[in-house]
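Title: Prediction job returns without error message
Component: structure pipeline
Severity: low
Priority: P3
Assignee: unassigned

Description:
Job completed but the reporter wants confirmation the result is attached to the right record. Sequence as submitted:
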Amino acid sequence: MRFATLLCDGVEQSVVAVPGGRWAPLNLVDSGLTGDLLRLVERVPDAGTLAALADRARSLPERDLVSAGGAVFRSPYRRPRKIWGIGLNYREHAADLSAPHPEQPASFLKGDHTIVGPGDDIVLPRQSQRVTAEAELGVIIGRTARDVPEKDAFAHIFGVCAILDQTAEDILAQNPRYLTRSKNFPTFFSFGPEVVTLDELAGYGPDLERLDIATVVNGRTVRANTVANMAHGLRRLVSFHSELMPLFPGDIISTGTPGAGVIRPGDRAQARVGPLTPLTNPVVADPLIRPEGTAPSEGRGTP
């Protein structure tokens, strides 16, 4: 199943995909599902409940559906309890940086003020002259998870999504302790356009190991890789972080990038994740005086 948040009659509304490339507003199926997708995720439905919801959505009259061409995607939601980012999680990317991949997940937190959605501007902050965009696979937590064994991790996942995670790379280069600072400027976390449940991706392996992720800037693939080449797989990431603290419905784990690309005003950054609809964001300068200077064409990035 595929879920999203669309702008419907000027209001953000969660929707589910139905046959024919259309979207069905979930509030017309269940009056308790008014608003963005977080409302659905927080209700912690099991797979059977979700399937029943999708079946009812298919029965909606044509006039209530939103066509693919008329869909205006927004961020799936904007107020998760936590956003975990994972650094250096692809072995080849760690080698690019002449750094060994961490023996345990190298994670950091991002604030929800960083969130934007598909088509929204990524704003390059005036404090940085070298910002990178990094495509990642996002994991959306669907059930509260605490001390979850790896074998049970997927039972706590609502779905996955495409992510563009941004880094002020020149700030990070000054000191690795500046990771939080370099990752938390506004617009430095885009996700969407859709959240896809794991059943849709069964053909990519039991651990989604054949799912591919690519960072693309202006139509050029900067770097691509597959989930199989992560140092710490999806089950490990969910289990590990559930041991640190509770994971709540709607929490996001951004699982690391295969590689990063420097972005400049006028660029278009894109995350491509397997069969998911690509996530694309234009890049603009901070309106409060962007420093002069040009950046090299490729970035190193961290996650």
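Comment from assignee: result matches the submitted record. The first strand starts at residue 2 and ends at 8.
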